[in-house]
From TrEMBL:
Gene3D superfamilies: P-loop containing nucleotide triphosphate hydrolases. It comes from the Bacteria. The lineage of its organism: Bacteria, Bacillati, Actinomycetota, Actinomycetes, Bifidobacteriales. This is ATP-binding cassette domain-containing protein. One of its GO terms (molecular function) is ATP binding. Residues 2-236 form the ABC transporter domain. Coiled coil: none annotated. Signal peptide: none annotated. It comes from Alloscardovia venturai. Keywords: ATP-binding, Nucleotide-binding, Transport. Pfam families: ABC_tran.
């Protein structure tokens, strides 16, 4: 589904990613984890061509991201940012509809899907459809951010520290929610976090990144029980 082939990224003379080579499988929940500044977000942004590789290739469905029409690529690859990324001047329903509208979905279809999805994440459609983002809690806003990405069923969803601004309780609820949604929709998810506990809790496989190097890729059990490097051993 997603492949990094000898990918190097420099910002000026600062190398932030050293020759990354790995494959993310179709339907996998793949978590990039590591300290702040290690290159996780840069890797994530290369998947939807918000950043381009200095050397090497990133492939989505066997095709180089640089060969895609950007609009097509971004339709196939949803993006969920940190809490607070809703459009403040749009209602909940209008926020969820943004990408579906760009894809020319009919309003009835958007409304029907919005209601189904709101129910699924425990928010009553009647109560929430017409709310403004400022009247939502952090956890509620982030549920809406996830639904906005999910409604058109993209092949891949990228999530960049989506729960970092939430209180611990909301965080745990949202972790469980994304795992459930992933089980149901089988979307490939690439999730960035600096929180090791979160990573091993939600991932099918974890990719540990440190200073632009991939230290280890493995299941939560692998990385916690069979550390490949001293850095990984110290983390756990
Ligand atoms: P992480 O997501 O692991 O915190 P990032 O991928 O955001 O790490 O950043 C990796 C490194 O690249 C950091 O040193 C950061 O300052 C640098 N960096 C990120 N984006 C840019 C940019 N647009 N220009 C210059 N340096 C950048």
């Amino acid at each position: 589904m997603i492949e990094f082939r000898n990918v190097v990224k420099d910002f000026g003379d600062h190398r932030v990613l050293n020759s990354a080579n790995f494959t993310i499988r179709d339907g996998e929940f793949f978590v990039l984890v590591g300290p702040s500044g290690s290159g996780k977000t840069t890797m994530l942004k290369m998947i939807n061509a918000l950043e381009t590789a200095t050397q090497g290739d990133v492939l989505v469905n066997g095709k180089r991201v640089t060969d895609y029409n950007l609009r097509d690529l971004r339709f196939d690859v949803g993006y969920v940012l940190q809490a607070g990324s809703l459009f403040p001047n749009l209602t909940v329903a209008e926020n969820i509809a943004v990408i579906a509208k760009m894809k020319k979905w009919r309003p009835e279809r958007i409304k029907q899907q919005t209601e189904i999805l709101l129910d699924k994440v425990g928010l009553s459609p009647q109560e929430f459809m017409n709310r403004m983002p400022q009247d939502l809690s952090g956890g509620q806003a982030q549920r809406i951010g996830i639904l906005r990405a999910l409604i058109t069923r993209p092949d891949i969803i990228l999530m960049d520290e989506p729960f970092s601004a939430l209180d611990p309780m909301s965080r745990v609820q949202l972790q469980e929610l994304v795992v459930d949604l992933h089980k149901e929709f089988k979307t490939t998810v690439v999730f960035v976090t600096h929180d090791m506990t979160e990573a091993v809790k939600i991932a099918d496989r974890v990719c540990i990144v440190h200073d632009g190097n991939i230290e280890q890729i493995g299941t939560p059990h692998d990385v916690t029980h069979h550390a490949a490097t001293d850095f990984v051993a110290k983390l756990f």
